[in-house]
Amino acid sequence: MKVVRGGTVVEAHWSGPADLLIDGETIVAVLAPGAEADPAAEIIDATGKLVLPGGVDPHCHVGFTSGEFTSLDSYRECTTAAVFGGTTTIIDFAIPRPGQQPLEAAEIQRAKAGDGLCDSALHACVVEWDDTTAGQLATLADAGIRTVKMFTTYAGETMADEHTILNTMQTTRDLGGMVVIHCESDAIVTDAQRFAAASAGIDATHMAKTRPELAETASVAAILAIAESQQAPVYFVHQSTAAAVELVADARKRGLIAFTEAVAHHLTLDDTAYSGSDPERFVCCPPLRSAEIVEGLGRHLFTGQITTVGSDHCCYDTAQKQLHRHDVRHMPNGLPGVETRLPVIFSHYVGGLGLTPSRFVELTAANPARTNGLYPRKGSLMPGADADIVLWDPDLEWTVTTEALHMATDYTPYEGLRVRGKPVTVLVRGTVVVHDGNLVDATPRGRHLEAAPLDFRLC
Ligand SMILES: [Zn+2]
């Protein structure tokens, strides 16, 4: 038995002083502060700390291969960085390589997950529909893989056509799952890239102009129409503008089950990064937007229209980012961020702008667990939940540097940023894994999580 004593417990729907009783890997009781517990229980002192459910990162690419590039981390490396950052569940993607089927891609990615320090789950991915796809999706759902990633861009690689998207929505809906979709109009993006290449230039300094906001809103509107035609639930990954978020919010008002994910870098960084000294380090899709758009997006953390905050972690290093920096069409897209997601969002939005700690937990742990069939085992501190627990010091000030982090790359987009708030003790299923900045237990205890059929009453 263990007791987490003296802290402020923060749940998505409730917060207050309370102690947590842990038996083995599970939380078994929420106790009044200082309540009598088993005298033999080990006491974990949480005085002055927020006690949060471990973060659930709904969008995390581990060792992801796209074209000539593979992102640099293994499950062990990615989950080590995750737990240092207060995240105890990651959800990775099984994106098929050219010629690969969704089932095969999921089997390969799942086999890599054995040496993780914390638990993980998978999103499948469909690129092209054929007469085996429905059967593969049923097999995946039986194995607890119910969310299916799709793309409306990257023609010739992962882009799916509208027939494929409609069929996949219909099938996943009937299997208790959901399509999770990257929306950018490939035609608008391709045209903007062609124009940039023929005029101002297409190197990393011009990244923002190569993927305009309209490409995103146009695609979101088209996909919402398909989802509405099927009454199929749909989850939009990394929405980067308030306009895109509001299209989804309007569809929800019409009765559609639809969700918005925003990612940490779109909420905290802006396109001035592309005129700085290392523009290629900030190349991601959708790109970083103007400060005004970032502010508008961030406002929806407060209005309730953003459902989850993910990282879209992609662990490339500077050499990979620099190789084709003269032409963003050939660059690897994505930023390292599994470790910084919680600290930068907490510092900027909770400490800086007054977002409540409960809403922070809802966005970064509870809702990602709910939309992925993992709640209340993950994303909650209620009895019966896995004892994935973060003791968070809300007042600890520190400077983000590559040296202070543990991701398998040589940079962070937040280098030099002063932040307030840090996870100091992290438990994975009842075991203290991180304490006072040290990895105190490196046992690979990560398990593959099977998603339950999605229950949208929880969302
Ligand atoms: Zn992604």
How does this model look, in words?
The protein is built from 13 helices and 21 strands. The radius of gyration is 21 Å and the shape is globular. Strand 13, helix 4 and strand 14 form a beta-alpha-beta unit. The chain is α/β, with parallel strands linked by helices and 459 residues long. It has a single domain, classed as Metal-dependent hydrolases (TIM Barrel). The strands form four sheets. Strands 8-11-12-13-14-15-16-17 form an eight-stranded parallel sheet. A seven-stranded mixed sheet has the order 3-2-7-18-19-20-21. A four-stranded mixed sheet has the order 5-4-1-6, with no helix packed on it. The site of zinc ion (ZN) has 3 residues, from loops.
Short structural description:
The protein has 13 helices and 21 strands.
Query: Residue ranges: pLDDT <50 for 5 or more in a row?
Result: none
Would you identify the CATH architecture?
Answer: Alpha-Beta Barrel
Q: What is the terminal separation in angstroms?
A: 32 Å
The major β-sheet equals: 8 strands, parallel
Mean pLDDT: 97
Beta-strand content estimate: 15-25%
Number of individual domains: 1
CATH H-level superfamily title: Metal-dependent hydrolases
Strand order of the largest sheet: 8-11-12-13-14-15-16-17
Number of helices: 13
- What overall geometry do the principal axes of the alpha carbons give? globular
Which fold name is given in CATH as the topology?
TIM Barrel
Question: What is the top-level CATH class?
Answer: Alpha Beta
Could you estimate the helical fraction of the residues in percent? 25-40%
